[in-house]
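Protocol step 4 of 5: obtain the predicted structure for the target chain.
Materials: sequence only (see below). No template structures provided, no constraints applied. The aim of this step is simply to have a reference model before the mutagenesis design in step 5. Sequence pasted as it appears in the construct record:
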Amino acid sequence: MSFQGKVAVITGGSSGIGKAVAIELVKRGANVVINGRREQALVEAAREVDPTGAQVSYIAGNISDPQVAERLIEEALLRFGRIDTLVNNAGIFIAKPFTDFTEADFESILSINVAGFFRVTQRAVNEMMKAGSGHIVNITASGVVEQPLKAVPSVLAALTKGGLNAATKSLAIEYADKGIRVNAVAPGITKTPMHAVETHEYLSQLHPVGRMGEVQDIVDAVVYLESAQFVTGEILHVDGGQNAGQW
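Step 4 output (structure tokens):
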């Protein structure tokens, strides 16, 4: 499906899932603005997304900072004229026993996973309301939220990503009659730079199908939701069966 001329804002776009989504959307004709905390990584990602630079721009910084969130939305409007899609991909995952989490862990995870989502999404929705249309895709999580594993204690991921699942449905209902759809992709553990290669064999065993997710699995889900005009409020599990139950 072509997304010719559409404009997408993608957080966490310098690597992994976010960069792969940007590459796919540009291939299909969209313009993208990517965000990440490391400017040099963003520069390199932007070159990979579109070597010509015609269909890509970037804003570096922490999206929990209101000024960064504002600049990200402004860049999409100034460079490409509107915002059709927001992909909330930026996130932090830390697994450790509950009582071992520090104040710094708490602050960093909530700032990105919750405050960053809130600030960018609120600004994007304001622009989508003016246009009478738009689509938001939240990248949440599956296993740690809906089928917690004793071997992978990660309550702050459950708290924040589970909150995004709930927010997805709440926003979908609030804006359904305004032309704005809101959906989520809940991945299993996906092969990205976040997970060292030597952990892949163990992490594969945490999925009923016996393998980790590939980045393309998540990209395909985002593309489906972007094209599925009658779908809103959906939490699309792309998790190798994790959410289905114990195994």
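Step 4 remarks: The chain has one domain: 7-244. Strands lie at 7-10, 31-36, 56-60, 85-88, 134-139, 180-187, 235-238.
Proceed to step 5.
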